[in-house]
Amino acid sequence: MSEPIPFSAALRERSSGAHSGSEGAGFMSDLIKGEGTRDDYIALVAQHWFIYEALESAAERMRRDPVAAVFISERLTRLPALAADLEFLVGPDWRERIEPLPTTRRYVDRINQVGATWPGGFVAHHYTRYLGDLSGGLFIGKLMQRRFGFDTNGIGFYIFADIADPKEFKEHYRVQLDAAPWDEAEKERVIDEVLLAYRFNTELFEDLARAKAEAAA
């Protein structure tokens, strides 16, 4: 009789296709291949601000929840780095010069909704963003650094100064996922929410490509 698959492994396996599809979206693919512009990168950073503002506000609300709280770590906090990046990339008035795209608004609304009512849903979005940041995100940060000649200004979002070993951090996170007291139905709900988060990311890249095309027309 085979051992049951750990939840973290099932989650990773079930979401791998959505993850690949998100990374392969045209806008992001161009940016990674060096075909995107500095303005494209800035547009992405601006959308990240709204997403992480919602996610980290939700984290504050979820700190007292016994299930969600174990996933929350100050070492993951991205909002101060995003603010510093945008000040460098856009200027001191960056907050007045950026606005969320339609998908970002829907994404933020969903994070706000689950971040107020559903610990498993919050963890799904937390997992999708931060473990992605600690995986492909680190690679993307180095690419953008080389592509646009940044030092650390402009890519602070991708620098986790307080996490010495991202692999170890991710492994511990997955142990926590496996230990979460969710029944099979709740695990399915969490997986579905992760898939929704990946869909938001893919649709955001489509929005960014559309906005770029409209600006060039």
Give structural notes.
This protein has helices at 7-23, 26-33, 38-62, 79-89, 94-97, 102-117, 119-148, 166-179, 184-216. Helices cover 73% and strands 0% of the residues. Helix 1 packs parallel to helix 9 (184-216). With 217 residues, it is mostly helical. It has nine helices and no strands. The protein is globular and about 50 Å long. The longest helix is centred in the last third of the chain and has 33 residues, at 184-216. The chain starts with 6 loop residues before the first helix and ends with a helix.
List the defining traits of the structure above.
217 residues, mainly alpha, globular
Total DSSP helices: 9
| Major sheet description | none
Shape: globular
DSSP E strands, number: 0
Based on helices, strands and strand pairing, what is the structural class? mainly alpha
Distance between the termini: 61 Å
Q: What amount of the residues lies in strands?
A: under 5%
In short:
The chain is mainly α.
List the helices and strands and how they pair.
Elements: H1 7-23, H2 26-33, H3 38-62, H4 79-89, H5 94-97, H6 102-117, H7 119-148, H8 166-179, H9 184-216
Helix pairs in contact: 1-9, 3-4, 3-6, 3-7, 6-7, 6-9, 7-9
